[in-house]
Structures are given as C-alpha cells and as structure tokens.
C-alpha cells in the first residue's frame, strides 16, 4: 500500500507542482486486473480501485493495516464507476450497476469483485475509514440515493449531488459518500467553496474524456493552488483546504468524507471574492 503522510498548510507555499501532486493527487488507482490501495494519514482514509476483468479479485486480510482483517476496525464505501459487476461480501452477492454504491461494514472477512463483461469492466472506487461499530453491509442503488439539485445555469454551476452513504439514506459509523454530476453545459462544482474543519474529504473525478482535465482548486482560501486532474484521479482535501473545480469537458465525481461528525451541512462557506 502506498502511504501519504499528510501535509501542514504551512508547507504549501514551498511546494512545487510535483510535490503538490505527489501529496494530494492519486493518479494510479485503476489498473485492469488489479486492486490498488493508497493509505493516507489524513484521517486514515484508504482510497482504493479495483478493475476485475476475466476473473475475480478479492481482498480481506489486514496485514497492511495491522489488524487480523482489513475490516477489523474499518468500514468502506464502494462506488461502481464502470460497467455492471458484482461485489460479494462474506458470501452475499450484490449486483452493482454503474453509479450504485455498496456499504461494507466492520467485521467483514472478504470482499470479492467481478465484472459482468470483461469488455466493459466494472471500475470499483473505494473509500475506507476507521469504524467503531458493526453495521450490516448493503447495496445502495442510484435510485435509492438522495438527490439535491444545486447551482444555477447562469453561473455554470448547476449540478445534482446524490447522497448514498449518509444518515438520511443508510447508516454508517463516520463515512459519508456520494456522487455529484454537473448538468450539461455546466462546468463548476462546489460553488461557493467551503471548508469543514471537522471533516476531511476525497474527490475521485470520472466520466472525463481522455483529452479533458478538471482544474481542481485547493489550499487555504487566501492562498489557493490548483491541480490538473485526469479521469480516474483522486484528490485529497484536508480539513483546512477548499475543494472545488471546473472541467474542460463533462465530468462527475465521487466525494467521500470522514472526521468528527456526519453533518453534511457543518461547513464554513468562503465567499468567492475572498479567494486569493
Ligand atoms: O458540487 C458540490 O457542491 C459537491 O459535490 C460538494 C461536496 O459534496 C462537498 O464538498 C461536501 O462537503
Ligand atoms: Zn466539502
């Protein structure tokens, strides 16, 4: 497992592009026929990617996290960003269509991934965080998610945010997970920007054409930086960082959060005029 140790905001002014990307951008999560994980000390969130094709992929041992099982003290959300597939959690099979999410609870012994069609493989994106209780694993389909319509066409930021792992949809310990889709011809996400000192966040951008990029803005509001983000890349957003962006073409992203609470509205908005 690759490990990211986390950075103080005081380090940002001295970081060049490569260092900034090395600490905050995860570029290599998805490889056909592999499961990949990145462990971050930012609230100990683990990011993962699995692309099964022509066979199954599985995991469950805890050697990398220092416990008997991966899930001895963890929970996870798994979003399918690709073709239809299955996630088998301790023998229970979930049929997972594109944009469905599986919640995997603490105590799980094994997770197995498969694609329905190797020519159009499932692309499973994972967020795992420490958990303090056993909660049953379950599938949350796109239809079962809770949509919020945000933004406006006139500001190019109209979008639908869908909550999947959220107290109003399904219980978890401290993980929150959802998917946001900008409306056609709208490019901005997360406007106005905000901070949430009590939670970190990770974004995984997807459904972006190969030639396009999302300009993801990060950093303290008074000293922002940017990351040029490609399809399938994930971005870490510590509690002190804004997180917002604009695409050069259509895109969507999965957001995952953990921290002190699950209060989605516990945010401090930042006025655009105050960004530097
Ligand atoms: O477009 C948005 O707005 C979002 O997707 C916001 C994220 O979910 C977020 O930053 C939650 O704190
Ligand atoms: Zn946020």
UniProtKB/TrEMBL annotation:
InterPro entries: KduI, KduI/IolB_isomerase, KduI_N, RmlC-like_jellyroll, RmlC_Cupin_sf. GO terms for biological process: D-galacturonate catabolic process; D-glucuronate catabolic process; pectin catabolic process. It catalyses: 5-dehydro-4-deoxy-D-glucuronate = 3-deoxy-D-glycero-2,5-hexodiulosonate. The keyword Iron-sulfur does not apply. Binds 1 zinc ion per subunit. Zn(2+) binds at residues 194, 196, 201, 243. Pathway: Glycan metabolism; pectin degradation; 2-dehydro-3-deoxy-D-gluconate from pectin: step 4/5. Its EC number is 5.3.1.17. Pfam families: KduI. Catalyzes the isomerization of 5-dehydro-4-deoxy-D-glucuronate to 3-deoxy-D-glycero-2,5-hexodiulosonate. PANTHER family: 4-DEOXY-L-THREO-5-HEXOSULOSE-URONATE KETOL-ISOMERASE. Belongs to the KduI family. This is 4-deoxy-L-threo-5-hexosulose-uronate ketol-isomerase.
